[in-house]
Amino acid sequence: GSITKKLFSFCMKVVGWLPGGLGHVNVLCSVIFAGMSGTAVSDAGGLGSIEIKAMNENGFDNDFSCCVTAASSTLGPITLVVYATVSGASVGALFMAGIIPGLVMAILMMVLVSAYAILRHYPRTKFPSGGEFYTALKDGFLPLMAPVILLVGIYGGVFTPTESAAIVVCYSPYLEIFIYRELTLEKFISILKET
User: Fold this and answer.
1) Is the pTM for the entire model greater than 0.85?
2) What is the pLDDT of residues 82-99, one digit of tens each?
3) What contacts 54, CB < 8 A, 6 or more positions away?
């Protein structure tokens, strides 16, 4: 829905002006999605088609677009949840422990994207004005609140990781149906069938 598009537009204003801009957008979107979903499959499925299409349309090689999408989607692997289930470790503690390594991985991916972009002469967008950045932030604010709800809820002791996931699962369709008015009953039924 529009949540992924708004996140993509926000990330475009934040890092799109770096060499190989859309590659950096791809990585930053994955960082945000990792905070919401924690799974590589949902990251690649949720944003991957938008990212790859945009990169290919803007002169990036298909192999590069697919590789950046596949690599960046690994920033939020579900193996922590599986490990927590098997070992009895705290999901919240493991999630928190993964933040710094995930950010380090993202920075290293962005360094590699820059190197390839310079070698292959990939495009970038112009540096955004303050007004353009503010508009993107305003449009992306509500979708950006999903990872905040998760983290504040878990680490503030308001609810468990499972409860926080349920709240975000309700929050996202709420945005699509009542705020952005993009999810109709027909689209929702189609999504359920496809899922």
Assistant:
1) no
2) 677 778 887 777 777 778
3) 8, 22, 25
